[in-house]
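B., you asked whether I could sanity-check this one before it goes into the benchmark set. Here's the sequence:
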Amino acid sequence: MRSQQIHTRIAELKLQYGEELLILGHHYQSDDVIQYADLRGDSFQLAREAAASKARYIVFCGVRFMAESARVLAREDQLVIHPVPEAGCPMADMADRPAIERAWSALGDVLGDMNAVTPVTYVNSDVGTKAFCGTHGGAVCTSSNAERVLDWAFSRGERVLFAPDQHLGRNTAFKRGISGEEVVVYDPFRPLGGVTPEQIQSARIILWQGHCCVHTYFTEDMVREARAAEPKALVIVHPECPREIVALCDDAGSTSYIIDYCRRAPEGSVIYVGTEEKLVARLNAELPDREIRLLGRSSICNTMSMSTPLALLEVLEDLGQRNLVEVADADAAGARSALTRMLDICR
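And here's what the prediction gave me:
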């Protein structure tokens, strides 16, 4: 089917279903998909807005953990559909529930009282990891509220187990004055995470050894090259970037923060942005009075790129009959607890 035929048919189906259908598009989706989104944004924001909508059919153009979160927060009468079920998130896959449970047990052997440890998981995690945090008194965080959630966690106990993104965890800890020996990285593939009992006992925050493949692409040399090419340019990156990269930049923040930063910048600004390149290109097109440049040369999220207009059309043609997102009741309850706890923390 040709692209114009696909475009025409999607438009017809959107008109046919009206308010019953809500298409969500994450910021990292390509332009040829995002054009059909009724809402675009970060994953948690989209999931919340979908649950509050009148829609019966929620089609999430993003990766698997996003569609899972939407399913957890959705009403019983809503169906959540993921056009490309195989589109997962490599970072989310770095911390599944069995691995977290093994680490929790190993840490318990060293620390004894695990009531003094609060688990916190980044929203970019699978539903099992969220459920573990929910059932162990922990919470979810986003890149925009990680500081508040970390403060809450430390108000409850001496230590935090933070998964799956070590870099967001380290950057957030640094902003709260926690660094050095108070931060350790737990490698789930090594005995006791590759750290000593003494290191665990000295740590305030235990970071899971996970990362985002897109944001760990950026290097210190890329920042220096940008400064050399345009000395007056601004440089902003996502806090999923390593700490040494963030330290060289003018600012760091969530995807929504980066978008607002570029929009608030003075006209004529040159801004280098270290995040997924599809968003950077879109910002440059939407803000013609500023020059938004990609930091480095290529930073594509391959799984985000798996969504296509044809995949979207295929689920719309059989709406509610294919690619439905389902979450086990036990996981849904635990994950909902962790997500709700975050909302309470950040009111």
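One thing to flag: The two ends are 48 Å apart (CA to CA). Otherwise nothing jumped out at me.
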